[in-house]
C-alpha cells in the first residue's frame, strides 16, 4: 500500500503564561492508503493535538514548531490558509466527539450536506439531491428524503453523529480524522456507529485516523496503533502486535485497564500513579514515575523510538521480553 500521510518530527507546543507545554514532541508516523490507524492513550497524551496539527487547526497559544506533514507527498505546513481550506473537507475531513460542534443548528441536514457537495464536487442540483439521499442511506438513516428537511436538534445524539459521518464522507476524502467520535454516546450506539464507520471507510478506500482513549475500540477497529504518552509515541505497531506482543510498559498498563468481559465482575484496574505535570516532565523517561520496571538509566536518559519488528517501534530502555509475559 502507498503512503498517504507521513508525519516527520512534529512538534506542537503551547506557549502559556505558566510555561511551555510540549503537547506533541517529536512525533513521526505514517498512514497508508485505506488504513485505519488508532491513536490511543490517556488524556493529555497529545492524541488530539496530533490530529489537529495534521489538519492545520492549531490556534494560539499553540504553535507547530517544526516537522513535516506530508500528505500525498505535499507538505501541508507549506500551504497557505486558502490552499489548506481546499484540502479540509475534500481530501481530509474531521469527525469530533460532539456532533453539535460540526453541525450548524440553523441549517437543515440537507443544506449542510449539500454545502459540502457544492464546495467540493461539480454536480447538478438533481445529482446533489440524489447524493444527499444516498449519503443518509449509507449511514443508516431511514426516510432520508424527509430527514433532509430536519434540523440537527431533531435527531438523537447517535443519529446526529451518523449525519456528521455522512458529511465527512460526502466529498469522498482520502483521510478522515475522528477524535473520540463515539465517546459521548451510549455503549450500544457506540458499537453500531464504529462498525458503520469501519465499513464505510473500508468500502470507500478511505484512511482513518481514529483517536480514542479506549484500547478496546482500537482493537476492534484499527489495522495499526500508535500509543501516545506525554506528547510522544511510546509504541507503534500492527494492532495484533500491540495487543499480543506489546513491549512497552505503558501499553501493558493500558491493556490491563481494559475491563475483562470474561470475568463476572468487571475488573477496572487503572495504571498506578498519575500522568505527570506537562509543565514539569521528569528527566529521562516520561513514564518513569509510574513504571514498575524503572531503573537508574530511565531517570537520566530519554529512550529513543527504535525499530523492533515489521512496522513495530518502541521507546523504552527495558522493553518487556515476550517470555516474561
Ligand atoms: Fe519504564 Fe524505563 Fe521503559 Fe521508561 S524506559 S518505560 S521507565 S523501563
Ligand atoms: Mg483528546
TrEMBL record:
<dbReference type="GO" id="GO:0005524">
    <property type="term" value="F:ATP binding"/>
</dbReference>
<keyword id="KW-0472">Membrane</keyword>
<keyword id="KW-1278">Translocase</keyword>
<dbReference type="Pfam" id="PF00005">
    <property type="entry name" value="ABC_tran"/>
</dbReference>
<keyword id="KW-0067">ATP-binding</keyword>
<dbReference type="GO" id="GO:0016887">
    <property type="term" value="F:ATP hydrolysis activity"/>
</dbReference>
<dbReference type="InterPro" id="IPR003439">
    <property type="entry name" value="ABC_transporter-like_ATP-bd"/>
</dbReference>
<dbReference type="GO" id="GO:0005886">
    <property type="term" value="C:plasma membrane"/>
</dbReference>
<keyword id="KW-0813">Transport</keyword>
<comment type="similarity">
    <text>Belongs to the ABC transporter superfamily.</text>
</comment>
<dbReference type="InterPro" id="IPR027417">
    <property type="entry name" value="P-loop_NTPase"/>
</dbReference>
<dbReference type="InterPro" id="IPR017871">
    <property type="entry name" value="ABC_transporter-like_CS"/>
</dbReference>
<dbReference type="Pfam" id="PF08352">
    <property type="entry name" value="oligo_HPY"/>
</dbReference>
<keyword id="KW-0547">Nucleotide-binding</keyword>
<dbReference type="InterPro" id="IPR013563">
    <property type="entry name" value="Oligopep_ABC_C"/>
</dbReference>
<protein>
    <submittedName>
        <fullName>Dipeptide/oligopeptide/nickel ABC transporter ATP-binding protein</fullName>
    </submittedName>
</protein>
<dbReference type="GO" id="GO:0015833">
    <property type="term" value="P:peptide transport"/>
</dbReference>
<dbReference type="InterPro" id="IPR050388">
    <property type="entry name" value="ABC_Ni/Peptide_Import"/>
</dbReference>
<dbReference type="InterPro" id="IPR003593">
    <property type="entry name" value="AAA+_ATPase"/>
</dbReference>
<feature type="domain" description="ABC transporter">
    <location>
        <begin position="5"/>
        <end position="255"/>
    </location>
</feature>
<keyword id="KW-1003">Cell membrane</keyword>
<keyword id="KW-0997">Cell inner membrane</keyword>
Amino acid at each position: 500500500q502507498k503512503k498517504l500521510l507521513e508525519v516527520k518530527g512534529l512538534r506542537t507546543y503551547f506557549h502559556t503564561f505558566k510555561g511551555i507545554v510540549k503537547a506533541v514532541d517529536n512525533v513521526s508516523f505514517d498512514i497508508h492508503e485505506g488504513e485505519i490507524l488508532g491513536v490511543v492513550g490517556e488524556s493529555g497524551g497529545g492524541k488530539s493535538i496530533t490530529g489537529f496539527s495534521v489538519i492545520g487547526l492549531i490556534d494560539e497559544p499553540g504553535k507547530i514548531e517544526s516537522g513535516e506533514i506530508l500528505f500525498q507527498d505535499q507538505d501541508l505546513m507549506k500551504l497557505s490558509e486558502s490552499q489548506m481550506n481546499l484540502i479540509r473537507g475534500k481530501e481530509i475531513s474531521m469527525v469530533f466527539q460532539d456532533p453539535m460542534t460540526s453541525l450548524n443548528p440553523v441549517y437543515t441536514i440537507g443544506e449542510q450536506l449539500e454545502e459540502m457537495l457544492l464546495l467540493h464536487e461539480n454536480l447538478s442540483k438533481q445529482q446533489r439531491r440524489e447524493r444527499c439521499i444516498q449519503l443518509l442511506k449509507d449511514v443508516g438513516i431511514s426516510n432520508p428524503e424527509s430527514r433532509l428537511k430536519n434540523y440537527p436538534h431533531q435527531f438523537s445524539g447517535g443519529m446526529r453523529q451518523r449525519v456528521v459521518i455522512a458529511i465527512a464522507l460526502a466529498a469522498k476524502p482520502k483521510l478522515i480524522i475522528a477524535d473520540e467520535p463515539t465517546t459521548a454516546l451510549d455503549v450500544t450506539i457506540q458499537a453500531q456507529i464504529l462498525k458503520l464507520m469501519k465499513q464505510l471507510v473500508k468500502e470507500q478506500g478511505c484512511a482513518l485516523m481514529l483517536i480514542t482513549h479506549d484500547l478496546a475500540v482500537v482493537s476492534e477497529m484499527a489495522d495499526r496503533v500508535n500509543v501516545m504518552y506525554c506528547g510522544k509515541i511510546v509504541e507503534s505497531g500492527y494492532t495484533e502486535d500491540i495487543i499480543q506482543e506489546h513491549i512497552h510498559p505503558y501499553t501493558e498498563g493500558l491493556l490491563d485497564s481494559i475491563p475483562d468481559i470474561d470475568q463476572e465482575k468487571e475488573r477496572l484496574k487503572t495504571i498506578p500513579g498519575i500522568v505527570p505535570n506537562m509543565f514539569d516532565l521528569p528527566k529521562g523517561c516520561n513514564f518513569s514515575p509510574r513504571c514498575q520496571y524503572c531503573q537508574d538509566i530511565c531517570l537520566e536518559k530519554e529512550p529513543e523510538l527504535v525499530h523492533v519488528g515489521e512496522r513495530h517501534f518502541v521507546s523504552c530502555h527495558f522493553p518487556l521480553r515476550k517470555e516474561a509475559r
